[in-house]
Design goal:
The chain is an alpha/beta fold and about 375 residues long. It is about 45% helix and about 15% strand. The longest helix has 20 residues, at about 260-280. It is globular, with a radius of gyration of 20 Å. Bound molecules: (3S,4R)-3-hydroxy-2-oxopiperidin-4-yl beta-D-xylopyranoside.
Length: about 375
Protein backbone atom coordinates (compact mmCIF):
# COMPACT_ATOMS: atom_id res chain seq x y z
CA UNK A 1 0.00 0.00 0.00
CA UNK A 2 1.41 3.39 -0.92
CA UNK A 3 1.80 6.31 1.41
CA UNK A 4 3.31 4.44 4.29
CA UNK A 5 6.84 4.46 2.96
CA UNK A 6 8.13 7.52 4.75
CA UNK A 7 6.73 6.51 8.09
CA UNK A 8 8.87 3.41 7.81
CA UNK A 9 11.71 5.25 6.06
CA UNK A 10 12.50 8.46 7.90
CA UNK A 11 15.76 8.88 5.98
CA UNK A 12 16.63 12.60 5.99
CA UNK A 13 18.58 12.22 2.75
CA UNK A 14 15.23 11.75 1.01
CA UNK A 15 14.33 15.30 1.92
CA UNK A 16 17.68 16.59 0.72
CA UNK A 17 17.14 14.71 -2.49
CA UNK A 18 13.82 16.41 -3.06
CA UNK A 19 15.37 19.78 -2.23
CA UNK A 20 17.97 19.16 -4.92
CA UNK A 21 15.30 18.19 -7.39
CA UNK A 22 13.41 21.39 -6.74
CA UNK A 23 16.47 23.57 -7.17
CA UNK A 24 17.28 21.82 -10.45
CA UNK A 25 13.73 22.20 -11.64
CA UNK A 26 14.02 25.97 -11.69
CA UNK A 27 16.31 25.85 -14.68
CA UNK A 28 14.57 23.13 -16.66
CA UNK A 29 12.50 23.82 -19.72
CA UNK A 30 9.29 21.89 -20.21
CA UNK A 31 9.66 21.78 -23.97
CA UNK A 32 9.19 24.17 -26.83
CA UNK A 33 5.55 23.34 -27.50
CA UNK A 34 4.48 24.09 -23.92
CA UNK A 35 6.60 27.24 -23.75
CA UNK A 36 4.64 28.75 -26.65
CA UNK A 37 1.26 28.20 -25.07
CA UNK A 38 -0.26 29.97 -22.09
CA UNK A 39 0.02 28.04 -18.83
CA UNK A 40 -3.19 26.26 -17.89
CA UNK A 41 -3.22 28.11 -14.57
CA UNK A 42 -3.35 31.42 -16.47
CA UNK A 43 -6.13 30.28 -18.80
CA UNK A 44 -8.02 28.99 -15.76
CA UNK A 45 -7.38 32.11 -13.65
CA UNK A 46 -9.08 34.31 -16.25
CA UNK A 47 -12.26 32.38 -15.51
CA UNK A 48 -11.84 32.28 -11.73
CA UNK A 49 -10.71 28.63 -11.81
CA UNK A 50 -7.73 27.00 -10.07
CA UNK A 51 -5.95 24.39 -12.19
CA UNK A 52 -3.69 21.74 -10.75
CA UNK A 53 -2.69 18.17 -10.15
CA UNK A 54 -1.82 15.47 -7.67
CA UNK A 55 1.89 14.92 -7.08
CA UNK A 56 3.42 11.93 -5.36
CA UNK A 57 6.45 11.84 -3.09
CA UNK A 58 6.84 8.08 -3.04
CA UNK A 59 10.05 6.06 -3.38
CA UNK A 60 11.92 7.20 -6.52
CA UNK A 61 11.11 5.17 -9.59
CA UNK A 62 7.68 4.04 -8.41
CA UNK A 63 4.44 5.12 -10.06
CA UNK A 64 3.55 7.60 -7.33
CA UNK A 65 6.87 9.45 -7.34
CA UNK A 66 6.13 12.23 -9.81
CA UNK A 67 7.25 14.92 -7.37
CA UNK A 68 10.75 13.44 -7.41
CA UNK A 69 11.10 13.99 -11.15
CA UNK A 70 12.46 17.49 -11.89
CA UNK A 71 10.81 17.51 -15.29
CA UNK A 72 7.40 16.93 -13.73
CA UNK A 73 8.09 19.56 -11.10
CA UNK A 74 8.95 22.04 -13.87
CA UNK A 75 5.62 21.31 -15.58
CA UNK A 76 3.78 21.69 -12.28
CA UNK A 77 5.41 25.04 -11.61
CA UNK A 78 4.42 26.27 -15.03
CA UNK A 79 0.90 24.91 -15.26
CA UNK A 80 -0.53 24.71 -11.73
CA UNK A 81 -2.10 27.07 -9.22
CA UNK A 82 -3.06 24.20 -6.90
CA UNK A 83 -1.57 20.80 -6.01
CA UNK A 84 -2.64 17.89 -3.84
CA UNK A 85 -0.40 15.17 -2.38
CA UNK A 86 -1.35 11.89 -4.06
CA UNK A 87 -0.96 9.60 -1.03
CA UNK A 88 1.04 11.49 1.58
CA UNK A 89 -1.86 12.99 3.54
CA UNK A 90 -3.95 9.85 3.66
CA UNK A 91 -4.52 8.55 7.18
CA UNK A 92 -2.58 5.38 6.39
CA UNK A 93 0.40 7.59 5.59
CA UNK A 94 0.11 9.96 8.53
CA UNK A 95 -0.87 7.63 11.38
CA UNK A 96 1.51 4.65 11.68
CA UNK A 97 0.21 3.81 15.18
CA UNK A 98 -2.32 4.99 17.76
CA UNK A 99 -1.76 8.65 18.60
CA UNK A 100 1.33 8.84 16.40
CA UNK A 101 1.52 11.35 13.59
CA UNK A 102 4.13 11.42 10.86
CA UNK A 103 3.97 14.31 8.42
CA UNK A 104 7.36 13.81 6.79
CA UNK A 105 6.04 12.45 3.47
CA UNK A 106 3.89 15.48 2.76
CA UNK A 107 6.23 18.18 4.07
CA UNK A 108 8.34 18.65 0.92
CA UNK A 109 5.18 19.02 -1.16
CA UNK A 110 3.67 21.53 1.27
CA UNK A 111 6.96 23.48 1.37
CA UNK A 112 7.15 23.49 -2.43
CA UNK A 113 3.59 24.82 -2.64
CA UNK A 114 4.38 27.57 -0.13
CA UNK A 115 7.56 28.71 -1.79
CA UNK A 116 5.99 28.75 -5.25
CA UNK A 117 2.72 30.45 -4.32
CA UNK A 118 0.74 27.32 -5.24
CA UNK A 119 -2.42 26.45 -3.30
CA UNK A 120 -2.58 23.14 -1.45
CA UNK A 121 -5.54 20.74 -1.24
CA UNK A 122 -5.74 18.03 1.39
CA UNK A 123 -6.64 14.43 0.49
CA UNK A 124 -8.04 12.97 2.74
CA UNK A 125 -9.04 12.96 6.41
CA UNK A 126 -11.11 9.76 6.30
CA UNK A 127 -11.00 7.13 3.56
CA UNK A 128 -13.89 5.18 4.93
CA UNK A 129 -13.00 1.73 3.62
CA UNK A 130 -11.35 -1.01 5.62
CA UNK A 131 -8.85 -1.82 2.86
CA UNK A 132 -7.41 1.69 3.03
CA UNK A 133 -6.98 1.69 6.80
CA UNK A 134 -3.91 0.58 8.71
CA UNK A 135 -4.12 -2.83 10.33
CA UNK A 136 -3.57 -1.34 13.79
CA UNK A 137 -6.55 1.01 13.31
CA UNK A 138 -8.89 -1.72 12.09
CA UNK A 139 -7.90 -3.92 15.03
CA UNK A 140 -8.12 -1.11 17.57
CA UNK A 141 -11.54 0.04 16.36
CA UNK A 142 -12.67 -3.58 16.52
CA UNK A 143 -12.00 -3.58 20.26
CA UNK A 144 -13.43 -0.23 21.37
CA UNK A 145 -16.88 1.28 21.70
CA UNK A 146 -18.51 4.17 19.84
CA UNK A 147 -17.31 6.93 22.24
CA UNK A 148 -13.63 5.95 21.84
CA UNK A 149 -14.00 5.67 18.06
CA UNK A 150 -15.58 9.14 17.93
CA UNK A 151 -12.89 10.59 20.17
CA UNK A 152 -10.10 9.14 18.03
CA UNK A 153 -11.65 10.37 14.77
CA UNK A 154 -12.09 13.87 16.20
CA UNK A 155 -8.56 13.93 17.61
CA UNK A 156 -7.04 12.70 14.37
CA UNK A 157 -8.82 15.31 12.27
CA UNK A 158 -7.99 18.08 14.73
CA UNK A 159 -4.34 17.10 14.74
CA UNK A 160 -3.97 17.00 10.97
CA UNK A 161 -6.02 20.13 10.25
CA UNK A 162 -4.15 22.06 12.91
CA UNK A 163 -0.81 20.90 11.52
CA UNK A 164 -1.59 22.35 8.09
CA UNK A 165 -3.60 25.33 9.34
CA UNK A 166 -4.70 27.75 6.66
CA UNK A 167 -2.28 26.42 4.08
CA UNK A 168 -4.86 23.87 3.03
CA UNK A 169 -7.79 25.80 1.60
CA UNK A 170 -9.82 22.71 0.70
CA UNK A 171 -10.03 19.29 2.35
CA UNK A 172 -11.43 16.01 1.14
CA UNK A 173 -12.83 15.30 4.56
CA UNK A 174 -14.45 11.99 3.63
CA UNK A 175 -13.37 9.97 0.61
CA UNK A 176 -15.44 7.23 -1.05
CA UNK A 177 -17.90 6.00 1.52
CA UNK A 178 -20.65 4.70 -0.78
CA UNK A 179 -20.53 1.08 -1.96
CA UNK A 180 -20.80 1.37 -5.78
CA UNK A 181 -22.53 -2.00 -6.25
CA UNK A 182 -25.33 -1.33 -3.76
CA UNK A 183 -25.37 2.42 -3.13
CA UNK A 184 -25.21 1.71 0.60
CA UNK A 185 -22.84 3.29 3.08
CA UNK A 186 -19.55 1.34 3.14
CA UNK A 187 -19.18 -1.13 5.93
CA UNK A 188 -16.07 0.05 7.80
CA UNK A 189 -14.84 -0.24 11.38
CA UNK A 190 -16.13 3.31 11.89
CA UNK A 191 -19.58 2.85 10.36
CA UNK A 192 -20.03 -0.39 12.30
CA UNK A 193 -19.75 1.66 15.49
CA UNK A 194 -21.11 5.05 14.46
CA UNK A 195 -23.19 4.52 11.31
CA UNK A 196 -23.69 7.61 9.15
CA UNK A 197 -22.75 9.68 12.18
CA UNK A 198 -19.17 8.85 11.20
CA UNK A 199 -19.53 11.43 8.44
CA UNK A 200 -21.18 14.03 10.65
CA UNK A 201 -18.39 13.67 13.20
CA UNK A 202 -15.68 13.95 10.55
CA UNK A 203 -17.12 17.08 8.95
CA UNK A 204 -17.85 18.74 12.28
CA UNK A 205 -14.34 18.08 13.50
CA UNK A 206 -12.90 19.46 10.26
CA UNK A 207 -15.03 22.60 10.47
CA UNK A 208 -13.90 23.18 14.01
CA UNK A 209 -10.20 22.66 13.29
CA UNK A 210 -10.10 24.25 9.82
CA UNK A 211 -12.84 26.89 9.98
CA UNK A 212 -11.82 28.64 6.76
CA UNK A 213 -11.28 25.55 4.61
CA UNK A 214 -13.69 24.26 1.98
CA UNK A 215 -14.95 20.88 3.21
CA UNK A 216 -15.51 18.30 0.51
CA UNK A 217 -17.12 14.88 0.20
CA UNK A 218 -15.10 13.17 -2.55
CA UNK A 219 -16.21 10.20 -4.65
CA UNK A 220 -15.88 8.59 -8.07
CA UNK A 221 -19.50 8.10 -9.15
CA UNK A 222 -19.63 8.87 -12.83
CA UNK A 223 -21.88 8.84 -15.87
CA UNK A 224 -21.86 5.15 -17.04
CA UNK A 225 -25.09 3.16 -16.55
CA UNK A 226 -23.35 0.81 -14.13
CA UNK A 227 -22.75 3.77 -11.78
CA UNK A 228 -26.49 4.33 -11.25
CA UNK A 229 -26.52 2.87 -7.73
CA UNK A 230 -23.35 4.72 -6.86
CA UNK A 231 -24.86 8.03 -7.98
CA UNK A 232 -28.09 7.51 -6.08
CA UNK A 233 -26.18 6.39 -2.98
CA UNK A 234 -24.09 9.57 -3.04
CA UNK A 235 -27.23 11.68 -3.44
CA UNK A 236 -28.78 9.92 -0.48
CA UNK A 237 -25.74 10.57 1.69
CA UNK A 238 -25.64 14.23 0.67
CA UNK A 239 -29.37 14.62 1.38
CA UNK A 240 -29.15 12.96 4.78
CA UNK A 241 -26.20 15.09 5.80
CA UNK A 242 -27.83 18.27 4.55
CA UNK A 243 -30.92 17.43 6.62
CA UNK A 244 -28.68 17.19 9.68
CA UNK A 245 -26.89 20.48 8.91
CA UNK A 246 -23.56 18.74 8.52
CA UNK A 247 -20.99 21.29 7.29
CA UNK A 248 -20.17 20.03 3.78
CA UNK A 249 -19.39 22.69 1.19
CA UNK A 250 -18.91 20.73 -1.99
CA UNK A 251 -18.94 17.42 -3.79
CA UNK A 252 -15.53 16.44 -5.14
CA UNK A 253 -16.19 14.77 -8.47
CA UNK A 254 -13.10 12.63 -8.90
CA UNK A 255 -13.60 12.29 -12.66
CA UNK A 256 -11.64 9.16 -13.48
CA UNK A 257 -13.26 9.01 -16.91
CA UNK A 258 -13.51 5.67 -18.69
CA UNK A 259 -15.22 3.71 -21.51
CA UNK A 260 -15.40 5.19 -25.03
CA UNK A 261 -15.84 8.85 -25.96
CA UNK A 262 -18.99 8.01 -27.93
CA UNK A 263 -20.58 6.51 -24.80
CA UNK A 264 -20.59 9.85 -23.03
CA UNK A 265 -23.03 11.90 -25.13
CA UNK A 266 -26.02 9.54 -24.71
CA UNK A 267 -25.48 9.53 -20.94
CA UNK A 268 -24.71 13.21 -20.49
CA UNK A 269 -28.36 13.92 -19.67
CA UNK A 270 -28.46 11.40 -16.83
CA UNK A 271 -25.17 12.72 -15.52
CA UNK A 272 -26.41 16.29 -15.73
CA UNK A 273 -29.50 15.22 -13.78
CA UNK A 274 -27.24 13.95 -11.01
CA UNK A 275 -25.13 17.11 -10.95
CA UNK A 276 -28.26 19.29 -10.99
CA UNK A 277 -29.50 17.51 -7.87
CA UNK A 278 -26.19 18.05 -6.09
CA UNK A 279 -26.11 21.74 -7.01
CA UNK A 280 -29.83 22.05 -6.19
CA UNK A 281 -29.06 20.98 -2.62
CA UNK A 282 -26.66 23.90 -2.38
CA UNK A 283 -23.37 22.03 -2.73
CA UNK A 284 -20.41 23.39 -4.69
CA UNK A 285 -18.49 21.25 -7.18
CA UNK A 286 -14.89 20.60 -8.05
CA UNK A 287 -12.88 18.14 -10.10
CA UNK A 288 -10.47 16.45 -7.74
CA UNK A 289 -8.87 13.64 -9.78
CA UNK A 290 -9.36 14.07 -13.52
CA UNK A 291 -7.80 11.48 -15.83
CA UNK A 292 -8.99 9.20 -18.62
CA UNK A 293 -8.73 5.44 -18.39
CA UNK A 294 -8.06 4.51 -22.01
CA UNK A 295 -8.34 0.73 -21.53
CA UNK A 296 -11.21 0.34 -23.95
CA UNK A 297 -9.84 2.67 -26.59
CA UNK A 298 -7.84 1.56 -29.65
CA UNK A 299 -4.10 1.04 -29.08
CA UNK A 300 -3.10 3.38 -31.91
CA UNK A 301 -1.62 6.35 -30.10
CA UNK A 302 -2.90 9.15 -32.31
CA UNK A 303 -6.41 7.69 -32.34
CA UNK A 304 -6.34 7.06 -28.60
CA UNK A 305 -5.01 10.52 -27.74
CA UNK A 306 -7.70 12.10 -29.90
CA UNK A 307 -10.41 10.08 -28.19
CA UNK A 308 -9.10 10.91 -24.71
CA UNK A 309 -9.06 14.58 -25.70
CA UNK A 310 -12.56 14.60 -27.13
CA UNK A 311 -13.99 12.86 -24.07
CA UNK A 312 -12.20 15.35 -21.82
CA UNK A 313 -13.50 18.28 -23.83
CA UNK A 314 -17.15 17.15 -23.85
CA UNK A 315 -17.09 16.37 -20.15
CA UNK A 316 -15.36 19.58 -19.15
CA UNK A 317 -17.64 21.73 -21.29
CA UNK A 318 -20.67 20.30 -19.53
CA UNK A 319 -19.22 20.47 -16.04
CA UNK A 320 -17.79 23.97 -16.46
CA UNK A 321 -21.27 25.15 -17.39
CA UNK A 322 -21.87 25.00 -13.62
CA UNK A 323 -20.60 28.31 -12.32
CA UNK A 324 -19.93 26.82 -8.90
CA UNK A 325 -17.13 24.66 -10.32
CA UNK A 326 -13.92 26.60 -9.76
CA UNK A 327 -11.19 23.99 -9.26
CA UNK A 328 -9.93 21.50 -11.83
CA UNK A 329 -7.34 19.04 -10.55
CA UNK A 330 -5.89 16.18 -12.59
CA UNK A 331 -4.69 12.98 -10.93
CA UNK A 332 -1.23 13.38 -12.43
CA UNK A 333 -0.05 15.48 -15.35
CA UNK A 334 2.41 13.04 -16.95
CA UNK A 335 1.47 9.56 -18.23
CA UNK A 336 4.64 8.00 -16.85
CA UNK A 337 3.44 8.46 -13.25
CA UNK A 338 -0.25 7.66 -13.62
CA UNK A 339 -1.65 5.32 -10.98
CA UNK A 340 -3.73 3.69 -13.75
CA UNK A 341 -0.68 2.02 -15.27
CA UNK A 342 -0.21 0.06 -12.06
CA UNK A 343 -3.77 -0.21 -10.73
CA UNK A 344 -5.75 -0.64 -13.99
CA UNK A 345 -3.37 -1.67 -16.82
CA UNK A 346 -4.59 -2.17 -20.38
CA UNK A 347 -5.35 -5.78 -21.28
CA UNK A 348 -3.19 -5.45 -24.43
CA UNK A 349 -0.29 -4.21 -22.24
CA UNK A 350 0.00 -0.98 -24.23
CA UNK A 351 1.14 1.82 -21.97
CA UNK A 352 -1.78 3.86 -20.58
CA UNK A 353 -2.09 7.48 -21.77
CA UNK A 354 -4.50 9.04 -19.25
CA UNK A 355 -2.82 12.43 -18.59
CA UNK A 356 -2.27 15.74 -20.38
CA UNK A 357 1.49 15.10 -20.92
CA UNK A 358 3.12 11.99 -22.42
CA UNK A 359 6.04 9.90 -21.18
CA UNK A 360 8.47 12.26 -22.90
CA UNK A 361 6.90 15.23 -21.04
CA UNK A 362 5.30 16.56 -24.23
CA UNK A 363 1.84 18.12 -24.08
CA UNK A 364 -0.86 15.92 -25.60
CA UNK A 365 -4.22 16.69 -27.21
CA UNK A 366 -5.76 16.23 -23.76
CA UNK A 367 -3.89 19.32 -22.60
CA UNK A 368 -5.27 21.27 -25.55
CA UNK A 369 -8.76 20.00 -24.70
CA UNK A 370 -8.46 21.26 -21.12
CA UNK A 371 -7.14 24.63 -22.30
CA UNK A 372 -9.92 24.96 -24.87
CA UNK A 373 -12.64 24.04 -22.37
CA UNK A 374 -11.30 26.57 -19.86
CA UNK A 375 -11.03 29.17 -22.61
CA UNK A 376 -14.66 28.57 -23.56
CA UNK A 377 -15.94 28.61 -19.96
CA UNK A 378 -17.83 31.55 -18.50
CA UNK A 379 -16.08 33.54 -15.75
CA UNK A 380 -17.06 32.67 -12.20
CA UNK A 381 -16.33 33.64 -8.60
CA UNK A 382 -12.82 32.49 -7.71
CA UNK A 383 -11.85 30.39 -4.71
CA UNK A 384 -11.29 32.92 -1.90
CA UNK A 385 -7.62 33.84 -1.31
C1 LIG B 1 -4.48 6.18 -5.60
C2 LIG B 1 -3.03 6.57 -5.83
O1 LIG B 1 -2.93 7.29 -7.02
C3 LIG B 1 -2.17 5.33 -5.88
O2 LIG B 1 -0.79 5.70 -5.91
C4 LIG B 1 -2.42 4.46 -4.64
O3 LIG B 1 -1.74 3.25 -4.78
C5 LIG B 1 -3.91 4.18 -4.46
O4 LIG B 1 -4.61 5.40 -4.43
N1 LIG B 1 -9.35 7.61 -5.78
C6 LIG B 1 -8.74 8.31 -4.76
C7 LIG B 1 -7.26 8.36 -4.72
O5 LIG B 1 -9.42 8.95 -3.96
O6 LIG B 1 -6.78 8.46 -3.39
C8 LIG B 1 -6.65 7.17 -5.40
O7 LIG B 1 -5.23 7.35 -5.42
C9 LIG B 1 -7.21 7.00 -6.80
C10 LIG B 1 -8.69 6.77 -6.75
Amino acid sequence: MRGKTVSSDPDPSRREFVGGVLAGALTLSVGAAAAETRPLKAVAAQKGVLFGTAVGNDTPGTQASSFRDPRVVAIVRRECSVIVPENELKPYGIAPALNQYDYSDGEPIAAFARSNGIRLRGHNLLWNQTKYMRKWLVEWLGGVGAPEAERYLRDYIKHVCTHYGDQIHSWDVVNETVEPATGELCDSPYTRLLGIDTLRIAFEAAREAAPRAQLVYNDYMSWPDRDEKHRSGVLRVLEQLKARNVPIDALGVQSHLKDRAADYAPRAKVWKGFVDEVVGMGYGLLFTELDVRDRDMPADIAVRDAEVASMTRDYLDMMLSYRGLNQVLCWGLVDRYSWLEEDKPRPDKAKARPCPYDDAYRPKPMREAIAAALEAAAPRAAVPA
